[in-house]
């Protein structure tokens, strides 16, 4: 009964559902829209706000949508990327400490161009 009521009378976040976070229901669309804006990437273009449900999982997807659909983007053409990594905890490892990447290590833009440092190995050997 409750599940039927929620699915018929409330709004469900399809982005959360797709990300494996089920049962995110909201009383009305305005509440869902606030959730979209706070937790996901909502397109703020008037046409998309009127159409409703124009929300994306990532900033990259939103920026792509803005360029393709609206011909512009509301933010910078650069997107911040954050990585978390952990070193090996095994004391017998041959791997030394890792350096934290700097902003210059990732010079990507939305036009598909990427900066590749010159000091990368130019080997054609495949990695196994």
Shape: flat
Number of strands: 4
CA(first)-CA(last) distance: 53 Å
Secondary structure: helix percent: 25-40%
The radius of gyration is 21 Å
Number of helices: 5
Largest sheet: 2 strands, antiparallel
Keywords:
128 residues; 5 helices; two-stranded antiparallel sheet; flat; mainly alpha
Please explain how this structure is put together:
- The longest helix has 12 residues.
- The protein has 128 residues and is mainly α.
- Strands 1-2 form a two-stranded antiparallel sheet. The protein has a two-stranded antiparallel sheet with strand order 3-4.
Give the SSE layout.
Elements: H1 2-9, E1 11-12, H2 14-18, E2 25-26, H3 29-39, E3 41-42, H4 46-51, E4 55-56, H5 59-70
Antiparallel strand pairs: 1-2, 3-4
Brief rundown of the structure:
This protein has 128 residues and is mainly alpha-helical. It contains five helices and four strands, in the order H-E-H-E-H-E-H-E-H.
């Amino acid at each position: 009964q409750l599940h039927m009521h929620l699915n018929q009378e409330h709004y469900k976040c399809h982005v959360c559902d797709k990300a494996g976070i089920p049962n995110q229901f909201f009383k009305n669309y305005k509440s869902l829209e606030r959730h979209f804006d706070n937790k996901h990437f909502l397109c703020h273009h008037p046409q998309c706000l009127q159409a409703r449900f124009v929300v994306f999982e990532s900033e990259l997807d939103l920026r792509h949508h803005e360029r393709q659909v609206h011909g512009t983007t509301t933010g910078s053409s650069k997107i911040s990327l954050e990585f978390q990594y952990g070193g090996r905890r095994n004391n017998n490892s041959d791997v030394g400490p890792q350096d934290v990447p700097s902003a210059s290590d990732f010079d990507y833009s939305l036009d598909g161009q990427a900066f590749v440092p010159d000091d990368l190995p130019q080997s054609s050997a495949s990695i196994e």
